[in-house]
Design a protein that fits this description.
By secondary structure, the chain is of the alpha+beta class. The chain has five helices and four strands. β2 and β3 form a beta hairpin.
Length: 177
């Protein structure tokens, strides 16, 4: 399967998702473009991912898993000061992609329900699991340290529902978790 096998609408949708760093949604768009009729069988996830990754590289789109610069509380205080909402808490949440787990440090508000990504922390791909390099998850340790320091400086709570184990379904701060 190649990029040229996609319809124009699917190509535009994939490019849109990639511009926003949503690789998995781009893969879904590729697979959804095929209706299952003879000659239009839906490609497998790996084939779709290969097409999406080749396109991402061609466009020079950012990889969704690229970490931000190492966060420091001082710089993050300045970032929070410019937000259009009053921060109710600092939160660390797990997220993942086809390359592995990472932690996102967020400024969150309950009213209005809003969040702003402050930093993405990644200690490496999930190949670490096979060579015994984790746990502990260094990105979680760093997110916990920086998140607590930032929350203390802002006078708001810090929330990290699953600091020891990746869990992208852990309860969020505004859920009372």
């Amino acid at each position: 399967m190649t990029w040229e096998d996609l319809g124009a609408g699917a190509r535009a949708e994939v490019d849109g998702w990639l511009a926003r760093g949503h690789v998995i949604r781009a893969v879904k768009a590729v697979r959804d473009d095929f209706d299952g009729s003879p000659g239009r069988e839906r490609p497998g996830i790996h084939a779709a991912l290969d097409v999406v990754e080749a396109r991402r590289q061609l466009l020079g789109a950012p990889a969704p898993w690229e970490p931000t610069a190492p966060p420091d509380a001082e710089g993050l205080v300045a970032a929070v000061a410019g937000l259009p909402f009053r921060v109710g808490a600092i939160e660390a949440v797990w997220d993942g992609d086809t390359f592995g787990w990472f932690v996102v440090l967020l400024a969150v508000a309950a009213e209005p329900c809003a969040e702003h990504r402050l930093a993405v922390l990644r200690g490496g791909g999930d190949l670490r699991l096979f060579n015994g390099a984790v746990p502990p998850w260094p990105e979680a340790v760093e997110a916990d340290r920086v998140g607590r320091e930032l929350a203390d400086r802002l006078g708001v709570p810090f929330h990290f529902a699953s600091p020891r184990t990746p869990d992208d379904a852990a309860p969020r701060w505004w859920e009372g978790g």
